[in-house]
Amino acid sequence: MLHPASARIAFPSMADASRWLLAMSVALTAAVILAAAPRAHAADKPGDPAHEVRGVKLASICSVCGVVSDIRSETRDASADAKGAVAGALVGGLAGHGMGSGSGRTAMTVLGAVGGGMAGNAIEKKMRRVTVWTITVVFKDGTVRSYDSDAELRVAPGDVVVIAEGHPARVER
């Protein structure tokens, strides 16, 4: 009887040995990943009646209701109209026209206008920044949706809400 430590595997070629080594590496990697994966429990399912969001049991709310789980505000660049791009193109074109002579002057005028237009557009966006509130809602069935608003809404994390006109609105309980 052979002892497992003294057993040897014979391969007809180096290619066969490489394939075997690759297959064993893949199998070992898969085993490690599966062993490290978190275990699922019945209580972890979002639709579970015991599931709570900010202290509110999802089973206790109406079928179309949700619970506000998070509110974030961030400042974003506003969409720009053509004013900044046009003003930038004019200034850049004039600056480019003052450089070079002949066909070089024409090329510099065009490059200045294009570059100035892009810069003017970017400057206008930065000058017209807006605050946007993102409200995350977890619904009774466990789905999660986020809603953006340019005006601060009168909801807070833990409030029970319905979606009215595309925005979360608090439900009095």
Summarize the structure.
37% of the residues lie in helices and 24% in strands. The protein is of the alpha+beta class. It is flat and about 80 Å long.
Structure description:
The protein is of the alpha+beta class. Helices cover 37% and strands 24% of the residues. It folds into three domains: 4-36; 46-77 and 130-170, OB fold (Dihydrolipoamide Acetyltransferase, E2P) (Beta Barrel); 82-127, no CATH class. The chain has helices at residues 14-36, 82-97, 103-127, and strands spanning 52-53, 56-57, 66-77, 129-139, 144-149, 160-164, 167-170. The strands form two sheets. Strands 5-4-3-6-7 form a five-stranded antiparallel sheet. Strand 1 and strand 2 form a beta hairpin. The N and C termini lie far apart (76 Å). The model is unreliable at 39-47 (pLDDT under 50).
Task: Describe this protein with a few key phrases.
173 residues, alpha+beta, OB fold (Dihydrolipoamide Acetyltransferase, E2P), 3 domains, five-stranded antiparallel sheet, two-stranded antiparallel ribbon, 3 helices, 37% helix
